[in-house]
Each structure stands twice: as C-alpha cells, then as structure tokens.
Amino acid sequence: MSTRHERRPNGWAVVLLGAALAASFVVPSRAQQTVENRLVIITPVARTVTEPTVAGFREFARRRFAVDVQVTVVSAGTPVAYGRIREWAGRPEADIFWGGEPALFDDLAERRLLAPLELPETALREVPASIGTPKPILLKDPRGFWVGCCLTPYGLVYHPRLLRRVGMQAIREWDDLLDCRLKGQIAQATPDRSSSNHATYEVILQMLGWQKGWEWAQKLGANTGIFVARSRDVPTVVAKGEFAVGFAVPAYMAFEDLLSGYELRYVHPTAAFVTPEPLAVLAGSRNPRAAREFIQFALSEEGQKTMMARGQYGISPKYKMEGPAGSPLARMAEFTGIKSFFDRPVRNVYDDNVAQRRYSEVNDVFRKLILERHAELKQRHCP
User: Fold this and answer.
1) Domain 32-151+276-328 has CATH 3.40.50.720
2) Predicted confidence (pLDDT) per residue in 222-269, tens digit
3) Distance, CA of 283 to CA of 278 (rounded, Å)
C-alpha cells in the first residue's frame, strides 16, 4: 500500500523509457527492411523488357524503402553470361543472373555459384511448379536457387512477302524449314552464343533422336544464309527483309520488331521450347537484399504487367494477354495466337537434365558438323 512519502515516477522519464523501448524494437526491423542502393544484373533479356522493369523496380524501392537504387544492366547472351559467372568463381561483378536456359542455372547451382533465393512464401505461391507434358518444364527450382519470372516461347518468324516470293505461303512446322525453296533464306544464331538456339536444337535432338536430329540440323544448315552474333539479331534481319525465315526466336524479341512497324509473322511449332526466364541471386553478391527485392518485384502484379506489356507471358495463370483492341497485350495475343500458356496444352519433349549433361557436346558437334562445313552442306543439300 502506497504512502504519501513514496516517490512517483517522473512523467518525462516514463515517456523517454517508452520511446527507448519502442526504438529497441523498431530499429532492427528497419535495418532488416532496408536495401542497398546498388544492383547489377547480367542478362540476355532485351533492353525493351529490362529497362521498363528496372524503372518500375526503382520506383518501387523509392516508395517502400526511400532508397534510390542505381541499377546497372549488363547485356550478354546466356552462354556468355554463364561463362562470366563461372570465371568470377564466387566473387561476382553482378548480383542477379536473369533469363535463358534453366539448364545453365541448374549447373551454376551445382557449382555453388548461386545463392538460395530465401524469398517469402507469398512471393512464390502463385508460380506453379511446372507446365507442359510429357516432360514438365520447371517454373521454379525445387531446391530454391532460381525462379521463373515470365514465359518466353522460342519459335519461328517469317517475312510474308519474301516467303511468297520463293513460292511459299506460310511456315507452320519445323520440317517446313527444310524446303529447298528456302535455301539461303534462313537466319539463325549458333547454340554456343544463344540459349534460345541451343534449347531449340535440344528439342529437335530429343524429338528425333541424336543421329536423325543432327541429320535434320545439317539440312537446316544447308538452307541457312547467315549465322548472326546473337538471338536478338535473328528477327531483326527477317523484319528488315534480308532473310525470309528466322529460327529459334524468342517471341517477345520479334514482337518488338512488329511494334516498330515491320511486317512479320510468328509461329510456335509442335514441342517448341518455352523458357521461364529464370532469376537467380549470385553467390557472393554485394547487394543481396536489393537483388531479392528485385526478384519479388518481378513476381508482383506490377512487375508482371510491366513485362507483359513488352511481350513476355505471365508466369502465373492469373495473368493473360488480354486488353483493349490495339493495346500491346491484344497485339501480342494476335501475333502469337496465344493468350496464356496455362489455357492450352503445352507439348514439351525437352529434358533439362539431358540438356545440362551434354550442353558443351551439342555446341562442339554443331561447330564441327555444321558451322565448319557450311559451304559443303550448301552444295550437298538442295544443289
């Protein structure tokens, strides 16, 4: 029982004590939520997609963290980016690897060159485990080292006027490319410089078998008029009317040429590969929190809609290529004939484990059988 002589706590002391206690809880929380002000991304994804996505992320970081993140995007073909990451050997000059063939991401994870994503379950929940039959295409790594951010089909493009000039009306399937009327009219990259080309050759090899697949590839080589330096150049030379057909083209890259006013058609042949454009944090990243926040942004509704407006398909059934007439989403759906890969059967023969195991072998065989013998092949087939 208190008496008149007990000293009561000073009012200001109580306030200050309360503030100190509150600060002891708030400060660690804010420290956990902050992000670095730098981020470096190495990627084969075209700038038409990376630039608006990066701009959206920077605005997101300013809103949420009051941090102006300076983002550097290093453009490199997937095999080139993969090679650099291996050379860095755990001391990377980038924080994120974005896009291309999942087999390379799996290999980097095996080499301990990728860091665990450690994303909240809410960020990954809407990304399905896989898509396609009879061999499912993984949309996120079961071990947690990468996650797909969007779906990109690798198909064919053609220039309608040039195709008619050689006496053909349309391209529909892989075997159409072996028509002798297309001799010298096909553009492609090489598998050691393009993941879309490499994955597409794996589709052919796994669909036809090793021997018949390489016989098919040699006939395609005989009809090839140019081997360009990178995937992005394939639809461009076709759009400009330099070649009639482009092989192993990411659809969103061709879509950019269509938006620029060029006459172009896209085809998604049977069993054509669809990549989830993986995102991964590099082991030893200098800016890991910013890297993980970027990946979360890419998976958010805001990030998904940003990429879809540039021709990338949503990584979740929740997002479809639908919009008002003339909008980018409506035009992309018309260009490819596809609104969502979750609304239709996706036939996939591509086995990621097989592709990963013989990645270098496919590149070597292509160089010896096709690239080094290109002149001979042109004389032998369709003389």
Assistant:
1) no
2) 999 999 988 889 999 999 999 999 999 999 999 999 999 999 999 999
3) 15
